[in-house]
Amino acid sequence: MIMLSHAVNPLLPSWEYIPDGEPHIFGDRLYLFGSHDRFAGRKYCMNDYVVWSAPVDDLSNWTPHGVSYRKNQDPGNPRGRYALWAPDVAQGTDGRYYMYYGLEFVPRLSVAVADAPEGPYEFFAHVEYPDGNPLGGLPGDVFPFDPGILVDDDGRIFLYFGFGPGQKSLPAWNINRRKLLHEGAYVVELQADMHTIVGRPKLIVPVAENSRGTGFEGHGFLEASSIRKIDETYYFTYSSINGHELCYATSAYPDRDFNFAGILISNADIGLNGRTQADALNYFANNHGGLVQVENNWFIFYHRHTNRSQVSRQAMAEPIERTESGKFLQAEMTSSGLHTDPLAGDGRFSAHIACVLRSAGGAKYTPYLSFTRRGRHPYFTQSRPDRNSDGDQYIANMRDGAVAGFKYFDLRETRAIQIQSRGGSGEFEVSTELEGPIIATVPVTAAKNMSSQVPLPRDLSARSALYLKYRGRGAADLQAFTLISAK
């Protein structure tokens, strides 16, 4: 197996595009299941499923296990016309591993099975009623979307799913032809065979339009069902109607009485410390992920958007605090990611690990495919094409006033900084606060790829952010920076 050392955000190599990440521990390894975007793709999830894993005692060593399931393995998709969306995996009572997934907007959920978490998986069955009708196959049925699966401690099996973009948005999605219900998140129990439904789906979280008086006001359900049982409480993670945020609801029961509990993460840090959408710290759009406890630490997995579109998303993870009462506090986007300590203030760092990215006028919602023109907005991108090695992701189109931010570093022994960029003519202003005082100025020119060393103050902290603001003419591409320590 190929071993790759990586623990910063994004948590996989820069050439890999895994959104909708579901983290699960099987044995002594943490597995990441998710959709598989294509760099510069034309729609979501154009590639086949792949699986990555890391030992629980070393979250920097991620192993790629290759293709786990191909689009054309689904009997309803022999030509691979439909993309594989947002899977989740659970180990059945028989010891095998069951992957639940959907095909684009096909109103049906499928199940694949494997003998190992990483696969390979083979098609197993559709989720269906005892009479053989598939879930979502009848008029008035619930629209099955973004499955989350739980095998409870007592062996009972619960499947969570749903889609709630709002009734006014449905015609644009072209999924209302069968008059399927889109009222929120649902749960249904499955028989021991892992695919036959027991009873009827039950609504557990409402859509925004039906949220008045429920406690979910402002955070009604959109998509991205994910479920965990922690101690004796069920934690249901979902993406709200706001898109950028992952929220959660809790209950003492797996199939009823869920109450809104809070926000786990936003892929623009909206909501954190009162931050509003107008002050977004990154370019934002849909979000999807799940919770996992690794030894004594809790993490929330989610995704970010690159290449000025929604269809080249990358896996991210952050430490998240769980209080003694069981409440999770909203996590902050960082560059350090699965590191529970700040990054060392020495060495070369790729610009693609920025957790803050804004133009002089701020950040904005990321459209489905791309901004209509490059304009003033910086963005993460790579040299084409989509590939499986040799990543070279960087930040393109840094224009006057654009900022890239990196959190966090131990800068107590850091003495100087170099910046690698191309294009543009001007300087990068270095600070440790988004709008704080400038601690260094690094000149850059289009003709010079790497700047000279510029000294940094000697009173920097053990947990410090770095912000690089471009000032100058033209557009600069920020590729990397190097921190030089006294050691």
TrEMBL record:
InterPro entries, per the entry: Glyco_hydro_43, Glyco_hydro_beta-prop_sf, Glycosyl_Hydrlase_43_Enz
Keyword Transferase part of the UniProt annotation: no
Keywords (A to Z) from UniProt: Carbohydrate metabolism, Glycosidase, Hydrolase, Polysaccharide degradation, Xylan degradation
Taxonomy, superkingdom: Bacteria
Keyword field contains Hydrolase: yes
Protein family per UniProt: Belongs to the glycosyl hydrolase 43 family.
Name of the protein described by the UniProt record: Glycosyl hydrolases family 43
Source species of the chain: Microbacterium panaciterrae
